[in-house]
């Protein structure tokens, strides 16, 4: 009883609620602006939290994190400009929906899937943290290796019309990802002695270039088409439709939670795995990629399911799983708190006050998200002749801001041209992105495994977790081939 | 329909010939990956003097990806030659686009890519937006006011609210010094 | 922009001048520096340790001087931003850079740098020092540095790092050189990824920053064998220094730590240097800074001006040699 009142005194303050609301709002807005990521927003907000109460400070940062996770989907759906990397998956079905005049439905689907996934993720954080943290600790390089192999099998399902072209794009993405200094030996790979390429190709310029810029180029290399109102005033999401996707949302959330609990994997993989799973099991699988509600739901659920779960290794082990949680770890330390088992022993009321705040943030997301949809969706009614130059400007500023480098602007435009050529030749851009993200992870973990085992390959089969992912990989590949043969036979 | 359904029922008129986008694309990727595998990798990926295991080589993943592209490009090329794909409706919209429209777009891109530092965020934003509005043949004056207003407001937002520095423009700085 | 903010600019100048004149206890010879916002360049991306510490320092510094804007300019192990600073140009009289071991390590790893990491800069002050700790998993059979070295001479053991060329990696390479052992380097991407492998015993040892491993030492999941500074750390009482524990194994001169200090372009205005030194002196003796340090297992940096330059110079010599021997020079 004493503890409960202590938790409540820590949690029930106007400051905390303001921090959550402000955080989610900042996150949604910044997340929606192409090039500005939640990571950046959290880093920029950090100095302002120095003088706050610890709970308030951390809730503000967590709020930004969660808002940013969702905010990225808004511009992905409306203008094919993913505000955050994970939103690249939302765009696969969200943007076609917007083009068909279903922007409002897509946005609402994204919002409610995000909120449900966020809630599930938070519940997992509160009740299963200790258990999931144990799994995370058993995830060594060999286990990661198989997880990445499994993730790579999703390329086929996001390849659009042609799996061959999709796999080629993935291969190209992997090649681009190897630019930079070699992670083990430090030798130069494909840098052509250019300093700007030594730290690998920056992710945000590649992301915006690949998806947003081709829309701009395409517009100016086509005749002016009459402005189609994307009708935000159009049909909204009905409960029945959302109920139809609920199973997908829950599955996506669970995928997100598991991926999120393992440090270093990330929301983008979770979104794509969830999407691919949904596509595999959906009765409307042929509609995926063409504007399918369930596709948007799956992507956003996977993406947001990660948010709460990344706090699991942070709070229970003191291990940050990504850059944002690393900054949040910094915020803890600045306030004299050390996440990890010690935190639970010494500051239990504080931990529970944080949990309360994190739960509240899910509900705040509903309100902020709805407001954001109302205001941002004005974008959908602006004629493209006016909208696209402004979008381009945002993209340019955003690409510059990532590293304060004009080289990144050039890089973004180059990837824009590549994305445009991909569009014109029917090559899907998503596999390129997946190859770019997963290629280095594949290589890193393969090499780490061989380094720690001194070259002994039996380490790849060392335990149950490895075997689970080996079997998932084999099953996933077998499944793709089975579908291919069935399709062939039907054709013949 | 998973692995290759670009080809489908044949009807003579809406099909490409042997020289269709797929066979060309396949051919292009084939050549590119050959160059990559046998020229770029040996010349631009240095090997360390000592490696614990052949799979640890910095060339391993690029080679793997290169071979993947090479083989699939070959499949795509053969596939394109055997089953020419159909023409798309969208191609219609891409015929007869005014040259000026495309040139103005390229100019706007060049301003951002090359002169961002010189013109600054605001300057290049204004120039490029004006060019792009002209490319769409917009005539009303208020639109051009927007082209000035937006870069100014957005840059100020980036710099002062979001605390993200953007370049002022070395050209203007040089002018101010005189 | 310059004209648009003329008004705001003047006010901040006034504010700064008053603040400084107060700080100098009425000495106030209304010097013109700083007559613009101060820019603090962080040569790494937002969110890292350098970024976090820089933002704290910026926050404290702007209470003493004018507004301090933090800019992240990551690239090629901090050498991109450092090269830009070295070139100077307009605005460099208000530009500071948070240098860290990457300043000297980067210079010893990257080819054809177009600057001299010692001669081309003004060295203001080393602000923060974070010791590294040699840690092994709790399940490890080794309890002392001596046991570890003996074992490492018999068999191949491995050490983790958050990435090639990081000070943590180089600390390991230095250890390897001095003890004549064949440790295998297993690089990760960031300490967040490296730590689980260490905790699970997949790698045998790490030379990590104190704040990263401190909670795990406390909870008993990691064993601290030694600290890498010449003095024991007050945060880890009873843990010997590497120089003591490794005596007889070639580690008598072993010393590494993560230092974070402010540098500027070599033609930085003299008055600015003086004001910065005074302001740093003041904030570093203040409660805010003193309370901040323990959170990172850190101690205040001591080297000012030319002492700082000398320290960087000796660091550079040390890392160049390590890079040479570990075949990391590219």
Cα-atom radius of gyration of chain B: 25 Å
Task: Give the integer mean of the pLDDT values of chain B.
Answer: 84
Number of strands of chain C: 10
Structure classification of chain B: mainly alpha
Unreliable stretches covering 5 or more consecutive residues of chain B: 1-12
Family (chain C): Belongs to the UPF0065 (bug) family.
Signal peptide (chain C): 1-30
Pfam families (chain C): TctC
Keywords (chain C): Receptor, Signal
Describe this structure in words.
Chain A: This is Tripartite tricarboxylate transporter TctA family. Chain A: It comes from Marinobacter nauticus. Chain B: This is Tricarboxylic transport membrane protein. Chain B: It holds the Pfam family TctB. Chain B: The chain crosses the membrane at residues 24-45, 65-83, 103-135, 141-162. The complex is a heterotrimer of chains A (492), B (178) and C (330). Helices cover 73% and strands 1% of the residues of chain A. Chain A is built from 20 helices and two strands. A two-stranded antiparallel ribbon of chain A has the order 1-2. In chain A, β1 (180-181) and β2 form a beta hairpin. Chain A is globular. The termini of chain A are far apart. Helix content of chain B is 63%, strand content 0%. Chain B is built from five helices and no strands. In chain C, 42% of the residues lie in helices and 19% in strands. Chain C contains twelve helices and ten strands. The longest helix of chain C is centred in the C-terminal third of the chain and has 20 residues, at 306-325. Chain C is globular, with a radius of gyration of 21 Å. Chains in contact: A-B, A-C, B-C. At the A-B interface, α3, α8, β2, α9 and α17 of A face α1, α2, α3 and α4 of B.
Layout: helices, strands, pairs:
The complex is a heterotrimer of chains A (492), B (178) and C (330).
Chain A: H1 2-11, H2 14-32, H3 38-49, H4 54-79, H5 87-99, H6 103-137, H7 141-152, H8 163-177, E1 180-181, E2 188-189, H9 203-220, H10 239-261, H11 267-281, H12 293-309, H13 311-317, H14 323-334, H15 341-346, H16 348-376, H17 384-403, H18 406-425, H19 430-452, H20 464-491
Antiparallel strand pairs in A: 1-2
Helix pairs in contact in A: 1-16, 2-4, 2-16, 3-4, 3-14, 4-5, 4-6, 4-12, 4-14, 4-16, 5-6, 5-11, 5-12, 6-10, 6-12, 6-13, 6-16, 7-19, 7-20, 8-19, 9-17, 9-18, 10-11, 10-12, 11-12, 17-18
Chain B: H1 21-44, H2 60-82, H3 99-135, H4 141-161, H5 170-177
Chain C: H1 6-23, E1 38-42, H2 49-64, E2 68-72, H3 79-87, E3 95-99, H4 101-109, E4 121-137, H5 145-154, E5 158-161, H6 167-179, E6 184-187, H7 191-199, E7 205-209, H8 210-218, E8 222-227, H9 242-245, E9 257-265, H10 270-285, H11 287-292, E10 299-300, H12 306-325
Parallel strand pairs in C: 1-2, 1-3, 5-6, 5-7
Antiparallel strand pairs in C: 3-9, 4-7, 4-8, 4-9, 4-10
Helix pairs in contact in C: 4-12, 6-12
């Amino acid at each position: 009883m004493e503890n409960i009142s202590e938790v409540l005194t820590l949690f029930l303050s106007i400051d905390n609620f303001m921090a959550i609301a402000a955080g989610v709002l900042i996150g949604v807005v910044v997340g929606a602006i192409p090039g500005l990521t939640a990571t950046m927003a959290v880093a920029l907000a950090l100095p302002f939290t120095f003088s706050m109460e610890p709970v308030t400070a951390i809730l503000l940062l967590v709020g930004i994190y969660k808002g940013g996770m969702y905010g990225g989907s808004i511009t992905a759906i409306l203008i094919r400009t993913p505000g955050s990397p994970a939103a690249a998956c939302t765009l696969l079905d969200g943007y076609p929906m917007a083009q068909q005049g279903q922007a409002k439905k897509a946005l609402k689907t994204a919002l409610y899937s995000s909120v449900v996934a966020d809630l599930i993720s938070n519940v997992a954080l509160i009740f299963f943290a200790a258990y999931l943290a144990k799994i995370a600790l058993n995830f060594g390089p060999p286990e990661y290796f198989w997880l990445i192999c499994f993730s790579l099998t999703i390329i086929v399902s996001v390849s659009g019309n042609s799996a061959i072209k999709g796999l080629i794009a993935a291969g190209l993405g992997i090649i681009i990802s190897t630019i930079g200094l070699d992670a083990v030996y430090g030798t130069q790979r494909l840098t052509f002695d250019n300093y700007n390429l030594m730290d690998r190709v920056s992710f945000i310029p590649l992301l915006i270039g690949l998806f947003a810029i081709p829309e701009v180029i395409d517009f100016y290399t086509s005749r002016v088409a009459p402005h189609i109102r994307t009708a935000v005033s159009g049909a909204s999401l009905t409960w029945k439709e959302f109920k139809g996707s609920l199973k997908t949302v829950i599955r996506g959330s669970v995928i997100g939670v598991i991926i999120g609990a393992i440090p270093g994997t990330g929301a983008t993989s979770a979104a794509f795995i969830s999407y691919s799973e949904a596509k595999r099991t959906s009765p409307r699988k042929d509609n995926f990629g063409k504007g399918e509600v369930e596709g948007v739901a799956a992507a956003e659920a996977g993406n947001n399911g990660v948010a709460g779960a990344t706090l699991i290794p942070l709070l229970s082990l003191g291990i940050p799983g990504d850059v944002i949680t690393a900054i949040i770890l910094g915020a803890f330390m600045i306030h004299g708190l050390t996440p990890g088992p010690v935190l639970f022993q010494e500051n239990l009321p504080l931990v529970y006050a944080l949990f309360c705040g994190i739960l509240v943030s899910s509900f705040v997301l509903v309100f902020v998200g709805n407001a954001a949809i109302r205001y941002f969706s004005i974008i959908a009614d602006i004629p493209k002749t006016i909208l696209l130059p402004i979008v381009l400007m945002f993209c340019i500023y955003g690409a510059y801001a990532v590293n304060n480098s004009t080289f990144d602007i050039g890089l973004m435009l180059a990837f824009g041209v590549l994305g445009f050529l991909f569009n014109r030749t029917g090559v899907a851009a998503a596999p390129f992105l997946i190859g770019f993200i997963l290629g280095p992870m594949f290589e890193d973990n393969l090499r780490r495994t061989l380094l720690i085992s001194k070259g002994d390959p039996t380490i790849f089969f060392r335990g149950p977790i490895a075997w689970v992912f080996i079997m998932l990989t084999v099953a996933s590949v077998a499944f793709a081939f089975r579908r291919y043969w069935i399709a062939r036979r039907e054709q013949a | 329909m998973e692995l290759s359904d670009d080809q489908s029922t044949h009807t003579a008129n809406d099909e490409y010939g042997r020289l269709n986008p797929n066979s060309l694309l396949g051919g292009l990727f084939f050549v590119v990956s050959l160059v990559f595998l046998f020229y770029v990798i040996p010349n631009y990926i240095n090997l360390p003097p000592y490696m614990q295991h052949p799979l640890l080589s910095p060339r391993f993943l690029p080679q793997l990806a290169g071979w993947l592209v090479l083989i699939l490009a070959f499949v795509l090329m053969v596939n394109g030659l055997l089953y020419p794909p159909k023409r798309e409706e969208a191609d219609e919209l891409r015929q007869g686009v005014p040259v000026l429209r495309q040139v103005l777009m390229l100019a706007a891109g060049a301003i951002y890519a090359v002169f961002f530092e010189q013109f600054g965020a605001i300057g290049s934003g204004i120039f490029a937006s004006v060019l792009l509005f002209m490319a769409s043949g917009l005539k009303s004056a208020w639109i051009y006011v927007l082209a000035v207003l937006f870069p100014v407001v957005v840059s100020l937002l980036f710099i002062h609210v979001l605390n993200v520095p953007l370049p002022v423009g070395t050209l203007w700085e040089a002018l101010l010094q005189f | 922009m310059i004209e648009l903010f003329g008004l705001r600019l003047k006010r901040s100048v006034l504010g700064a001048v008053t603040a400084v004149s107060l700080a100098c206890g009425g000495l106030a010879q209304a010097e013109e520096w700083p007559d613009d916002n101060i820019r603090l360049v962080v040569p790494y991306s937002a969110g890292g340790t350098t970024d976090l510490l820089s933002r704290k320092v910026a926050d404290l510094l702007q209470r003493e001087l004018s507004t301090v804007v933090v800019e992240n300019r990551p690239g090629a192990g901090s050498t991109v931003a450092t090269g830009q600073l070295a070139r100077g140009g307009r605005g460099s009289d208000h530009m500071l850079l948070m240098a860290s071991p990457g300043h000297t390590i980067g210079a010893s790893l990257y080819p054809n740098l177009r600057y001299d990491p010692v001669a081309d800069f003004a060295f203001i002050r080393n602000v923060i020092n974070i010791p590294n700790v040699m840690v092994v998993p709790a399940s490890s059979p080794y309890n002392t540095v001596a046991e570890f070295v003996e074992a490492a001479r018999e068999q191949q053991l491995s050490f983790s790092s958050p990435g090639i060329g990081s000070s943590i990696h180089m600390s390991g390479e230095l250890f390897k050189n001095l003890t004549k052992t064949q440790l295998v380097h297993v690089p990760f991407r960031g300490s967040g990824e490296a730590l689980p492998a260490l905790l699970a015993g997949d790698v045998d040892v790490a030379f990590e920053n104190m704040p990263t491993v401190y909670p795990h030492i406390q909870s008993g999941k990691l064993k601290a064998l030694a600290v890498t500074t010449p003095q024991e750390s007050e945060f880890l009482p009873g843990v010997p220094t590497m120089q003591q524990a490794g005596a007889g194994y070639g580690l008598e001169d072993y010393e590494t730590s993560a230092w974070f200090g402010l540098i500027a372009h070599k033609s930085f205005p003299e008055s600015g240097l003086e004001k910065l030194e005074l302001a740093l002196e003041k904030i570093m003796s203040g409660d805010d800074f003193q309370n901040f340090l323990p959170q990172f297992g850190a101690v205040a940096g001591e080297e000012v001006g030319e002492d700082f330059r000398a320290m960087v110079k000796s660091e550079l010599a040390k890392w160049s040699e390590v890079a040479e021997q570990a075949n990391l020079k590219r």
